[in-house]
Amino acid sequence: MLIAFDSTQQALRMEMLLEYIEIEIDLCPTPKQITAGCALSIRFPDEDEARVWDVIETEKVEIRGLFRELDGQFEQVDRLR
């Protein structure tokens, strides 16, 4: 899965928060298919999706969106409640 951001500040903040709770992440360039204000995105394992949403909500991290890659295309994912 991938998180895209509108600002580098939010991307770096999220990187720190996810590393703190020991989620395996990869800071990477934002794919061209995703329009975002920041060139940095964070990839993380699918199984950590619920934990990542919890961090986004509790820490009020501003994101462009959370995306799942399917056959080279990115589909935005909404939080299931």
Spell out the blueprint of helices and strands.
Elements (H helix, E strand, L loop, with lengths): L1 E3 L3 H13 L5 E4 L10 E4 L5 H10 L6 E6 L2 E5 L4
Antiparallel strand pairs: 1-3, 1-4, 2-3, 4-5
Helix content: 25-40%
Q: Find the count of extended strands (DSSP E, 2+ residues).
A: 5
Helical run tally:
2
Compute the gyration radius: what is it? 11 Å
* Major sheet: 5 strands, antiparallel
Which spans of ≥5 residues are poorly predicted at pLDDT below 50?
Answer: none
Query: Could you say which overall geometry the principal axes of the C-alpha atoms support?
Result: globular
The secondary-structure class comes to alpha+beta
Percent of sequence in beta strands: 25-35%
H/E series: EHEEHEE
Distance between the termini: 18 Å
Mean pLDDT: 93
Question: Strand order across the biggest sheet?
Answer: 2-3-1-4-5
What does the model show?
With 81 residues, this protein is of the alpha+beta class. Helices cover 28% and strands 27% of the residues. It has a five-stranded antiparallel sheet, with helices on one face. The longest helix is centred in the first third of the chain and has 13 residues, at 8-20. The radius of gyration is 11 Å and the shape is globular. The mean pLDDT is 93.
